[in-house]
Amino acid sequence: MSEPVVRDVGVVIVAAGASTRAGGVSAGELKQFRWVAGKPMLLHTLQEFQARDDVAMVVCVLPRQVAGDPPPWLFQCDTERMLVATGGAVRGESVRNGLEDLPESCRYVLIHDAARPLATSAMIDRVVMEVRRGRGAIAALPVVDTLKRVNESGRIERTVDRAGLWRAQTPQGFPREMILEAHEHALLTGVDATDDAALCEQLGLEVVVVRGSERAMKVTEEADFARADLLYGLKE
Questions:
Q1: Is the pLDDT of residue 185 over 60?
Q2: Residue 2 burial (CB < 10 Å; 0-12/13-18/19+)?
Q3: 130 and 208 in contact (C-beta within 8 Å)?
Q4: Which of 129, 100, 99, 101 is nearest to 112 (CA)?
């Protein structure tokens, strides 16, 4: 008989942005609520994490104007393992709000951007495996394109060596104590970052990369919705 899986992983889904580059509130619908590959982006992410037996709780951090009255489709999930938190003025504050709502049983934390709705179970597995070894881990892909540094007028200044460069994705995972320490330090020093691993790096805490997925693209511009539809059927 197999041992029962311990539910000791907490997930914070950051979905508190105004999504201005993809229309945002002015267009009547937040990007993270728009449909892609058959369902709202945020619901893709929520259901993917709740499909894991080791996930104890998923906290969806939503914009203040909708956190009190989320869209009904959000509850097409295991509602006993889902909470809604209110987003802050900056990303770091939103993440901290989500972390505060995780139950104490969550020894490990995954932080995921709702703008990446198609993260695969395999890449999540790889992140969790490393986090259980006591260090931070992020999904990422190696840079394969030639990189150019360009000045404000568009003139190329130099070619950047791409060796050792990776494109960071999410989820990003950490032992709970590690990410709490990193965010506490960021709060005290007034630092905000678009990447939680960067906060750990500032303290010299170990963070490794694991292979991500092209499916886990970030939906940013309007054209990205069509691309995400196409990538949905991509096998890892």
A1: yes
A2: exposed
A3: yes
A4: 99
Residue 52 belongs to what domain range? 9-231
Q: What is the CATH number of the domain that holds 71?
A: 3.90.550.10
Q: Alpha carbon of 147 to those of 80, 158, 163: distances in Å? A: 46, 9, 10
**In total, how many domains does the chain have?**
1
| 13 is a domain residue | yes
Q: What is the pLDDT of residues 18-68, one digit of tens each?
A: 654 444 443 457 999 999 999 999 999 999 999 999 999 999 999 999 999
Which whole-number Å values give the CA distances from 44 to 32, 49, 74, in the listed order? 10, 9, 10
pLDDT at 25: 42
Residue 3 falls inside a structural domain: no
Q: pLDDT digit string (tens) for 76-135?
A: 999 999 999 999 999 999 999 999 999 999 999 999 999 999 999 999 999 999 999 999
| Length of the chain in terms of residues written | 236
